[in-house]
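Our platform keeps sequence and structure together, in a single record for each protein. Such a record has a labelled line for the sequence and another for the backbone structure tokens. The tokens are whole numbers drawn from a learned vocabulary of local backbone shapes. The remainder of this section carries one protein's record, kept here as part of the documentation:
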Amino acid sequence: MLERQQYLIKEHVTVIKTTDTYDILDPETQEPIGQAKEVVNVLVAGLRWLIDRGWMPTRIEVRDKDNELQFYLRRGWYLFRARIEVYDVNDELIGYFRSKIWTLAGAFQVFLKDDTLFAQVKGGKQWFFDYHLTTPDNIEVGKVTKKWRGVMKEIFTSADAFLVTVNEKFAEQRMAKILLLAAAVAVDMIFKEDKSSSGIIGSLTE
């Protein structure tokens, strides 16, 4: 799955839910190549009916079409500044995302496990619709483009679909691909909840 340069990610269409699931597809054929699924214990799932899920811990597993784990994201209880950690299949930390304080609508930075800044989000004023992951020396790692399924379906289901494209310069770098895919999932599945929970409206722009 991680040998590709483009991924189409589509949210499962549901009206009532306590967890999120996204299908990862081949953009050209629409064939499934993997899935990103939120996995929480029974206690957390139950509490989500009482407490805003944006404040609660979560784990998101990314698996290929054969259900083999590729990597996973984890976030603990949320207070003022979200930190989402990315782990490989051996439970080794790859890196982490940290939201920029007071800009919880999606603006965040990507760090390697040794706390080195790897990239940051850069985008337009439309928050989650189009944004780029860019290194400190302004090299684009990749970009995420929001795809609409139709106005009425978006209104009634809040289902998202977006295209992830890896820059050719990082086509052979597995770690960079994992962090880009993880960032795309984190923005849609976690950071948009932080925005909703906090009431703070931010921007992906610097």
Remarks:
- DSSP finds three helices and twelve strands in the chain.
- Confidence is low (pLDDT under 50) at residues 102-106, 150-158, 194-206.
- The CA atoms of residues 125 and 165 lie 20 Å apart.
- The longest helix spans residues 174-198.
